[in-house]
């Protein structure tokens, strides 16, 4: 059994069942690179404060770098007896450099150490997600550009409502994902806080320079309160909240892709490389990718609720309950990253069935509102026009016809305000292009929206690259 780094107080060995029960190494070994990086920075801070010598710091840094390399190459043995990644690295360090390793933990605790590791991990993951959101929105923007003249029914209550441009529909998702990117970008402000030096909860008496620690580790600021620093997981919950909202948006897109690819709609076809077949029905082409994205959203939501429930009644400061924060965080980050990646690769290859979409706009009285608007333009009040258009719909329905299939004589039975130009006014193209109010589906509006979106993405990409460069220079 490995010697515990904290066993001086105890008179008997830890029960094997307790070792297994309290171990988190199967989860937190993922943090090894951040733990080593944090420990290397801590060595340098200790040396700068003359808590350890420069020679000792160099020995420790070399040992830590060797351990990082060993873990990366798979030449490292993990055991429940050492609980977590911190104890594994420190124990192995003693084997590599000897007694000097015993000085590494001066002026810190596993409490501020794990808080540091999680923040460094989440900082990188958040930046990855922001980059992936830029890439996915670029794909959506290209889809919109390719389909600027494609018209399909817009829906409310899952009933055909009014014709819209497919580009306009895609740009709605662009807006959702832009809000997601903004949320993740904003959350970085709360993630980018350096907790090291808070120790267990009260700080440390050693003269360490926490701002120097922050500089070495690329943090923009240092935590203000040592108790809060080790017990704060707000930044994890905020990340999971942003991830949940992003998964809501991806799930809504998934639902539409599933519906649109069905025989009942027939609006799109998924590429073969992103669909599967049936083990019994040869004709099937199943939308498994969208279905799995839709299904995985529930896991992310559940992970958010797990963290909220975990933290809701914990007294200050650190409690071992908080060991359970990492698995939900890691899973949510992995799910969101994979969903963003697969949609970025799949969406450009969607087969858009433009004719089927257009044909669907010609039935279901999608131009009824425009009939009412036409009557308003000829002096009728909207409420009267709405009622008149409703009667015409009822009449057309009784005849098994659409509004634009009625003769002028049939239309004029209801009001003589209707003239020959009604048939042009009721075409899907006219219905769409009349929606010129800001944010509407008119073609010129959508072209303008895409131009703004393109500039927005360019600015975001430039800002992202500059931020990445600034971090690497810290």
Write the layout of secondary structure elements.
Layout: H1 16-22, H2 25-28, H3 32-48, H4 54-72, H5 85-97, H6 110-146, E1 151-156, E2 159-165, H7 166-191, E3 193-194, H8 210-217, E4 221-222, H9 226-231, H10 234-260, E5 268-269, H11 288-311, H12 326-346, E6 351-352, H13 354-360, H14 368-377, H15 382-398, H16 408-412, H17 422-425, H18 428-433, H19 443-473
Parallel strand pairs: 3-4
Antiparallel strand pairs: 1-2, 5-6
Helix pairs in contact: 3-4, 3-6, 3-8, 4-5, 6-7, 6-12, 6-19, 7-10, 7-19, 10-11, 10-12, 11-12, 14-15
Notes on the protein architecture:
This protein is mainly alpha-helical and 474 residues long. It has 3 domains: 14-106, Fumarase C, Chain B, domain 1, CATH 1.10.275; 117-193 and 225-359, Fumarase C, Chain A, domain 2 (Up-down Bundle), CATH 1.20.200; 368-426, Orthogonal Bundle (Ribonucleotide Reductase Protein R1, domain 1), CATH 1.10.40. It is 61% helix and 4% strand. The strands form 3 sheets. The protein has a two-stranded antiparallel sheet. A two-stranded parallel sheet has the order 3-4. The two termini are 41 Å apart.
CATH class of the largest domain: Mainly Alpha
- The termini sit apart by 41 Å
Main beta sheet: 2 strands, antiparallel
**pLDDT < 50 runs, ≥5 residues:** none
Question: What is the residue-averaged pLDDT?
Answer: 95
Can you tell me the overall shape?
elongated
Strand order of the largest sheet: 1-2
By secondary-structure content and strand pairing, the structural class works out as: mainly alpha
Count of all domains: 3
Gyration radius, in Å:
30 Å
Name the CATH superfamily assignment of the largest domain: Fumarase/aspartase (Central domain)
Number of helices: 19
Instruction: State which percent range the strand residues make up.
Output: under 5%
- Count every beta strand, where a strand is a DSSP E run of 2 or more residues: 6
């Amino acid at each position: 059994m490995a010697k515990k780094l904290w066993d001086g107080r105890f008179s008997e060995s830890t029960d094997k069942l307790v070792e297994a029960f309290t171990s988190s190494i199967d989860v937190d070994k993922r943090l090894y690179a951040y733990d080593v990086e944090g420990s290397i920075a801590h060595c340098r801070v200790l040396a700068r404060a003359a808590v350890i010598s420069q020679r000792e710091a160099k020995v420790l840094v070399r040992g830590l770098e060797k351990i990082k390399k060993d873990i990366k190459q798979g030449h490292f043995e993990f055991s429940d007896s050492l609980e977590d990644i911190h104890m594994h690295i420190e124990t192995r360090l003693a084997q590599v450099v000897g007694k000097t390793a015993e000085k590494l933990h001066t002026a810190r605790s596993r409490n501020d150490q794990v808080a540091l590791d999680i923040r460094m991990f989440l900082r990188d993951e958040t930046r990855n997600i922001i980059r992936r959101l830029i890439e996915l929105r670029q794909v959506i923007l290209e889809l919109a550009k390719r389909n600027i003249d494609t018209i399909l029914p817009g829906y409310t209550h899952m009933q055909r409502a009014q014709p819209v441009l497919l580009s306009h529909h895609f740009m709605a998702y662009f807006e959702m994902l832009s809000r997601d990117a903004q949320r993740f970008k904003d959350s970085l402000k709360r993630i980018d806080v350096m907790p090291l030096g808070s120790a267990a909860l009260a700080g440390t008496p050693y003269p360490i320079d926490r701002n120097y620690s922050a500089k070495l580790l690329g943090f923009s600021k240092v935590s203000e309160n040592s108790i809060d620093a080790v017990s704060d997981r707000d930044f994890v919950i905020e990340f999971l909240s942003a991830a949940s909202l992003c998964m809501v948006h991806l799930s809504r897109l998934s639902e539409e892709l599933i519906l649109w690819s069905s025989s009942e709609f027939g609006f799109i076809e998924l590429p073969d490389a992103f669909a599967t077949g049936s083990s019994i029905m040869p004709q099937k082409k199943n939308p498994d990718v969208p279905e799995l994205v839709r299904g995985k959203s529930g896991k992310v939501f559940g992970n958010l609720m797990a963290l909220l429930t975990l933290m809701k009644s914990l007294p200050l400061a650190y409690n071992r309950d908080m060991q359970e924060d990492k698995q939900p965080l890691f899973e949510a980050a992995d799910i969101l990253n994979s969903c963003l990646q697969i949609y970025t690769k799949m969406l450009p290859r969607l087969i858009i069935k433009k004719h089927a979409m257009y044909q669907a706009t010609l039935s279901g009285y999608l131009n009824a509102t425009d009939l009412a608007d036409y009557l308003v333009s000829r002096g009728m009040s909207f409420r009267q026009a709405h009622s008149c258009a409703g009667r015409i719909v009822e009449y057309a329905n009784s005849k098994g016809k659409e509004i634009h299939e009625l003769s002028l004589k049939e239309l004029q039975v209801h009001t003589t305000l209707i003239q020959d130009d009604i048939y042009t006014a009721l075409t899907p193209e006219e219905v769409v292009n009349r929606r010129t109010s800001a944010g509407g589906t008119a073609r010129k509006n959508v072209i303008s929206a895409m131009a703004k979106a393109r500039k927005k993405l360019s600015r975001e990409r430039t800002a992202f690259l500059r931020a990445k460069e600034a971090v690497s220079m810290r």
